[in-house]
Each structure stands twice: as structure tokens, then as C-alpha cells.
Write a structure and sequence with these properties.
By secondary structure, the protein is of the alpha/beta class. Helix 3 packs across helix 6.
Length: about 140
């Protein structure tokens, strides 16, 4: 399978890293992240080179994290680069089909929210921010 060169995706990866996300590059990284975050709210972002959707997902996520509550931990996999890690994360997103970009929220290790590409595409960053903020707030408040 073709992998995007790191040099090409580095600026897009950095946008999410600068929000406090750790990079999950292997399936073991994904499993360790989920194990470490079994208590609390954790987010896994499926980052992507897709300009139309990921180009609004990244700023929407930044807005959500600036204006609202934050999850206890944030991580990212990069579709097309962290292929095995992305596949493992997607297994945890079942029953949702593979989607990139996407934002998954886990509460105490269980998937509780999924924002899929079709819910991102064509929406402005403000709408994405509202959806993400609302999900974090509702699951953080239930703690």
C-alpha cells in the first residue's frame, strides 16, 4: 500500500499535534493510548490529506478545543501514512465504516461519539467545532 511521504503530511500532522495530540504510528501505540485513557474522555483524530474535508476538520477541531472543554487525552493517526495504526483505530470505531478525516470520542474506553467524513464535508469549521464541543461537554459532564 502507498504511504504518503512524511515531508508532505508533516504540516497537516503538526496542526493536530499543536492541539496537544500525540501521534499513534503503530497498532501498539493505539492500544496503549486506549489502555492509558480507560478512565476519562479520550479523542482519536483520523487526520487526512483530503483538502475539502480535513481542511475544515483541523480548524474546526482547533476552535472546539480553544472555546470549550477538552478531552483528557488527544491522539491522532494519519490515514495514508500511519496505515496499520489507522486500521487498528478503525477497528475500535466499529460499527462505523472507515472514514477520513474523522473524530472519535471514547469515554472510559468505550466509543461514545463519531464524527465521520460525511458529517464534516461541506460544513464550515464553526459547525464542526460546535459538534465536537457538544460531544466533549456532554460526555465530560457525565463523568
Amino acid at each position: 500500500m502507498h504511504r504518503y511521504p512524511e515531508l508532505m503530511i508533516a504540516p497537516m500532522r503538526r496542526e493536530i499535534s499543536e492541539l496537544g495530540a500525540i501521534d499513534l504510528r503503530t497498532p501498539e501505540d493505539v492500544d496503549a493510548f486506549i489502555d492509558r485513557t480507560r478512565d476519562g474522555v479520550a479523542m482519536i483524530v483520523v487526520n487526512s490529506v483530503c483538502g475539502c474535508s480535513a481542511g475544515t476538520m483541523r480548524p474546526g477541531l482547533a476552535m472546539a478545543l480553544e472555546q470549550g472543554p477538552k478531552p483528557d487525552a488527544i491522539a491522532q493517526v494519519f490515514a495514508g501514512a500511519d496505515i496499520e495504526a489507522t486500521d487498528r483505530a478503525r477497528e475500535l470505531f466499529a460499527p462505523y465504516p472507515p472514514s477520513s478525516p474523522a473524530i472519535a470520542l471514547f469515554k472510559d474506553g468505550a466509543l461514545v461519539f463519531m464524527l465521520e467524513r460525511h458529517q464534516i464535508q461541506g460544513r464550515p469549521p464553526e459547525a464542526i467545532a460546535g459538534a465536537v464541543s457538544g460531544a466533549i461537554e456532554s460526555h465530560s459532564a457525565a463523568a
